[in-house]
Design a protein that fits this description.
Blueprint: H1 3-7, H2 11-34, H3 41-68
Length: 69
């Protein structure tokens, strides 16, 4: 997912997507411990998507706090 696509989503959708990605990350980590993954780079992509979402959520919270002050 690209940052531009993530910015188009609202906070509720981002939080939902973040939960889905964390669950998928857990499943991939579990599967990689048991057997070899078909696409090992998928773990990296998911980790980076989680980081992008968390960064954008943090930016929005910081902007909202700055507006209040």
């Amino acid at each position: 997912m690209k940052a531009e696509e993530i910015r188009e989503l609202d906070d509720a959708e981002l939080n939902h997507r973040l939960g889905e990605l964390r669950l998928e990350q857990f499943r991939l980590r579990f599967r990689s411990a048991i057997m070899q993954l078909e696409n090992p780079s998928l773990r990296r992509e998911i980790r980076r998507d989680i980081a992008r979402i968390r960064t954008i959520l943090h930016e929005r919270r910081a902007a909202a706090e700055a507006e209040q002050q």
